[in-house]
Amino acid sequence: MNPHDYEDDDSVETSSASITYANDAPPAGGVPADGTARSAHQGRMALAAKGLLPLFLLAGLLAVFVRVGPIGVFRAAFPPIEELTFERIAFPEPGLVRVHLVNGGPEPVTVAQVIVDDAYWEHTVVPDREVGRLDDIVVEIPYPWVDGDPLIVTIVSSTGVTFTQEVAVATQSPQVNRSYVVTFALLGVYVGVIPVFLGLLWLPFLAGVSTRWVDFFLSFTVGLLLFLGVDALEGAFSLTGRVASAFQGVGLIVLGVVGTPVAIHALSRWGRSGSAISPLGLSTLIAIGIGLHNLGEGLAIGSSYAVGEVALGTSLVFGFLLHNTTEGLGIVAPLARSRPSYPKLVALGLIAGVPTIFGTWIGGFSYSPTASVLFLAIGAGAIVQVIMVLGRSMESHGREGLRGPLNAAGLVAGLIVMYATGLFVAA
């Protein structure tokens, strides 16, 4: 055979391969063929099935366990675990006690009897005597309570388990009307708004000091924020015992302390494209952190008035009035080298102070230990984020940050001032 015949055959095969490749090429414009699109769709469906398979298996296992598992044996061998948590005891009018309860346990609870001061009393339960898990009820007791006297309420379940709560001072609870709304709003203004605005008046003084002393007052701000954060955490942990176990008081604290800084960090970087935060932005973050903390302070004041601890509330107002004046200084410290307009300063003061008003309303009209723990934890988490941002800002452009002797003294001074003014706040 002639060698050229092999060359002709190779050229024919190459040409055929080229033609085949040309026919299989995607159409112009980059749109994949139907087969490629179908394959990609099938791949996504397969990936979704792999992700959902463990969940379906888990659901099936739980269904089998509930239906044929040993739950019945456990229930027959052990007594039921019952839990009712007192959310609030209110005295809406003379001769009536209203008890708010929530079931935070794993089993339903049936309310059988109510005891007030060692005597059984008639009562009504809304919506039903059987309280399912995470459900709440209201028990209304026509009891002739005496203003200023202590009171002990005991709930007896159908299995004989008792749940007891003591009221130190019985007094008529605030009602949502114009008088109380205005009263609590004024409390919030005195405690949160006015002191913060008084603190903002330190801005002209800060504008006249050197950069070295501006860093001192920024460190002072870190100290007072650190004190406020620890104070908020202490308040949150002290309330966890009054939170129904199902709502996980400590878990709420972790959620607020960890989740809030992450959320604030993400929001603060929205649209900044990695650029450094401005002085006004830093002051806004400080005002937000202080405002969330002041929300918890408002809850404390409103709830103290609602349960009749008027002396405690007056002491709190006086103490917080001194306590919060230094917060305005912390807000304007980053603005020492800026010229903010009056509307922006007013906005900063409102951000930090107005949440106190909402706190007094919530605490006075519908106090909830669960909500209080969450709000206090959110306030502590916001303060953590603000301290981190302040620390980074103070170390920029070759500055010493908190490591400098003067700045370290400023941090300690902030802690001391907050402690000293806190002596006027009743425990």
Describe this structure as you would to a colleague:
The protein is α+β, with helices and mostly antiparallel strands and 427 residues long. The protein has helices at residues 3-24, 34-68, 71-77, 178-200, 203-207, 211-239, 249-268, 279-306, 310-332, 342-353, 355-365, 369-394, 405-422, and strands spanning 85-93, 96-102, 109-116, 119-120, 124-126, 130-131, 136-141, 151-157, 162-167. Strands 3, 4, 6, 8 and 9 form a 5-stranded antiparallel β-sheet that branches. A 4-stranded antiparallel β-sheet has the order 1-2-7-5, with no helix packed on it. Helix 6 packs parallel to helix 8 (279-306), helix 6 (211-239) packs antiparallel against helix 12 (369-394) and helix 8 runs antiparallel to helix 12 (369-394). The chain folds into 3 domains: 3-75; 85-167, Immunoglobulin-like (Sandwich); 178-422, no CATH class. The model is unreliable at 1-25 (pLDDT under 50). It starts with a helix and ends in a 5-residue tail after the last helix. Strand 1 and strand 2 (96-102) form a beta hairpin.
